[in-house]
Design brief:
Shape of chain B: globular
Strand content of chain A: over 45%
Order of helices and strands of chain A: EEEEEEEEEEE
Strand content of chain B: over 45%
Helix content of chain A: under 10%
Number of strands of chain B: 11
Number of strands of chain A: 11
Oligomer: heterodimer
Distance between the termini of chain B: 37 Å
Number of helices of chain A: 0
Chain lengths: 112, 112
């Protein structure tokens, strides 16, 4: 089944404790992206990647890191999480020359 | 930055009625897309309309685009309880998934 998977789905952590949210897609998509969703603010793009080893900042990159060492994986790294990073995070993927994006199920993060 | 703004923010209708949601945006676009999000889940692509199109249909969905007014509408006909979800418009400035910007969404509730 074609899909985007994220792990974990739920995470509670404390300020300053490094964490990684994994994202994987099995559709051979070149494009991958991370968003955060907060009430009243819609989806805001954190980082995106057009291909392996190519990443770029979105609208709200501060406090986040990403890497794209393999085409199928695009992990999101929070080196020192803070409470304002409490949010619902979505990974998405798509073909480089197509506009549609395919979303993962989301990761709900709570930073205490 | 948020490009699309949906209106209304929330809409409640009876099963069988039609639901209309509107989206306004600020800059010229290549295409506009509508996505649906069930509570706490990932977004699912519904329909895409290009800047040179004025209307598009897909099943019970009808999308219109008025580039002169920088606005789009999504009509769901003969609504069902299963249509209860949040609906987001997303504007693409270019021809790839990279530059997709989402609005803050309309929460649709269809009462049985």
């Amino acid at each position: 089944e074609a899909q985007v998977t994220q792990n974990p789905r739920y995470l509670i952590t404390v300020t300053g404790k490094k964490l990684t949210v994994t994202c994987s897609q099995n559709m051979n998509h070149e494009y991958m992206s991370w968003y955060r969703q907060d009430p009243g603010l819609g989806l805001r793009q954190i980082y995106y990647s057009m291909n392996v080893e190519v990443t770029d900042k979105g609208d709200v990159p501060e406090g986040y890191k990403v890497s794209r060492k393999e085409k199928r994986n695009f992990p999101l790294i929070l080196e020192s999480p803070s409470p304002n990073q409490t949010s619902l995070y979505f990974c998405a993927s798509g073909r480089r020359n197509q506009e549609t994006q395919y979303f993962g199920p989301g990761t709900r993060l709570l930073v205490l | 930055s948020q490009q699309g703004e949906e209106d209304p923010q929330a809409l409640s209708i009876q099963e069988g009625e039609n639901a209309t949601m509107n989206c306004s945006y600020k800059t010229s676009i290549n295409n506009l897309q509508w996505y649906r999000q069930n509570s706490g889940r990932g977004l699912v692509h519904l329909i895409l309309i290009r800047s040179n199109e004025r209307e598009k249909h897909s099943g019970r969905l009808r999308v219109t685009l008025d580039t002169s007014k920088k606005s789009s509408s999504l009509l769901i006909t003969a609504s069902r309880a299963a249509d209860t979800a949040s609906y987001f418009c997303a504007t693409a400035l270019g021809g790839s998934a990279r530059q997709l910007t989402f609005g803050s969404g309309t929460q649709l509730t269809v009462l049985p």
